[in-house]
Amino acid sequence: MFHPKYQPVLMAFFMALFMSFLMSAVITALNLGLPENFIKVWMHAWLSAFVVAFPIVMFVGPLVRKIVGKLVYQVET
Asked: What is the rounded distance in angstroms from the CA atom of residue 35 to the CA atom of residue 57?
């Protein structure tokens, strides 16, 4: 489907998509409970969160990979 060179962008996209989707639901529910218009409020929160999350994941992802690479030791086979 996609060329392998797009893997980092696709990874960031889907990570931001799922994390913002789930976290916005949790935070909306914690702040408002489950009102009648929960889905509408949640979808608005999710869209706002995703617009912020995607660029952040794109920027922070390589930094996180470097940090994890320094924390994990290599096993010789």
From this structure: 31
Positions of E strands within 1-77: none
Question: How far is residue 25's CA from residue 31's CA, in Å, rounded to a whole number?
Answer: 10
State both tokens at 29. Answer: 């529910």
Q: Which sequence spans correspond to the domains of the chain?
A: 4-67
pTM of model > 0.70:
yes
Dump pLDDT digits (tens) for 16-51: 999 999 999 999 999 999 999 999 999 999 999 999
Exposure on the CB side of residue 63, measured as CA atoms within 13 A: 5
- Tokens 């929960």 locate to 38
